[in-house]
Amino acid sequence: MPATKRTLKLVRMVAHRFAGLHVHGRPTDAPDPFVFTPTSEVTLFEGANGSGKTSILNAIVWCITGQLIRSQRVPETGMTEFHCEVSREDGSLTVHPMSSVTPMPNSDSELPDDGKPIPADTWVELTFSDSDGNELPPIRRHQTRTSRGKLQESEPNLDALGIDPIAWHIATTMPALLPFLSVGSTSQLGTAVARLTGLADLVDLAKHAEKAAERISKRKTKEIEEQIDEIRNRYSQHVNDLTAILSEHPDISFTGETPKIDAEDTQQRLTDIAEHFVTAKAKGLRTAQSVLGAGFDPQQKADRDDLEDSIRPAIEQLRLIGNLSSIARLKRLSLETGQMSEVERCFEQVHTEAATLAEMAESPDRAKRAQLYALVSTWIHQHDHAADGCCPVCTANLQDARDPVTGSAVADHLIEAEKNRELVAQTIAQWASRWHGHLLQQLPEVLVGEARSNLPSRPADLLVASLTTELYATEGFSSSLSALREGQ
């Protein structure tokens, strides 16, 4: 769907201690705020040089973008400092760091000691109305100094006005950049597009092709033909690289095909493609903010650079995620079919014996009697005692003998004990110790190594540790993308 057009009108500008609009004053006695209220669609400023015409414009531009328009150079940030020399009333000369938006002091101003920065207390507040005439919440940029003299700015909440971040620069700083841009020169915009897509190489190669065409019209030589072939090959390679990127990320694809190098509209077509990627990048940054949260500000260059520097290492790390220590540990737990069958057999026996011991543990008195009969059965087995129906201890006939605890026939207990005498005769501690030693001898080496280490409660815990801890200690996920961990 086409974007909804939104038009805002400046209703009021209020400035406090802004260079060109105010005198410096004193820290405890600030000059009155400067208030500018446009009354018509077009406002014309007339006045002598230095009367403040450009300062009114700069106050508006600075509040929105943090930049200042300069007549002889490119726009610069309001955080730029310069050394201000002040001739004191006593004839001495002092030098102080001072910001670009702070009014110039006079010799009788209350100033700090030589070398100390001039205090900063500048703010500009703008109020806009929408197309229906409704006033919107005001936005304000405020510059101050910390207790250590470092400049700091609180930025306006431009999102509240519902305008695309790039739109604020189109009518403010971008026109001021035009006199300083030349065809073929490097610009921040070109650099940004090149970093996103690699189109800078395509544009440069198209220009080389155009120059080569002019040379061919005058003289065809083998050297020129070789250069043309090289340029075509390089152009084709970059087109292939771009096509591969778009195949992985179809959501940023552009309409139509990449132009051929010798097409008449190649230059214009590449320019259109570059603009497409600038828009895609702005959209991507807004999406990144919705994912990463308030900690990521697409208006801040440092945040944008950090995100761009993190993306490629993060993608590479995800491709190599199997190298994370806990996942690599899981991968090593690989068994052949025969080994797996042996492991299953061992643990099936463990479970069966454990169930028997657990059943005995529910009735301690009966368990003790069962262990007693198991020991007697073991003695009978070891000494080849004849099965004559007599007690092997007292030689009495067992035909009518009954166990005083269970009430069952003693002869039946001995027959039952013969089935699991070795198991029942053991205590749980003896049984656990025997199986521990047996498993360390019989299990495959990969499982034995894990058994000797600090085991997690579940194998899945290793996977959780890799994706929530180890992954975020890597290069790509330790900075901007660390915010993803908070949402897990």
Instruction: Tell me the number of strands.
Output: 9
Helix content: 40-55%
Oligomer state of the chains in this structure: single chain
Mean pLDDT: 79
Our estimate of the beta-strand percent is: 5-15%
Q: Which stretches of 5+ consecutive residues score pLDDT under 50?
A: 192-199
The number of helical segments is 17
What is the H/E order? EEHEEEEEEEHHHHHHHHHHHHHHHH
Query: What separation lies between the terminal Cα atoms?
Result: 33 Å
* Cα shape: elongated
- Overall radius of gyration: 42 Å
- Strand arrangement across the biggest beta sheet: 2-1-7-8-9
> Biggest β-sheet: count, sense, barrel?
5 strands, antiparallel
Q: What structural class results from the helix and strand content?
A: alpha+beta
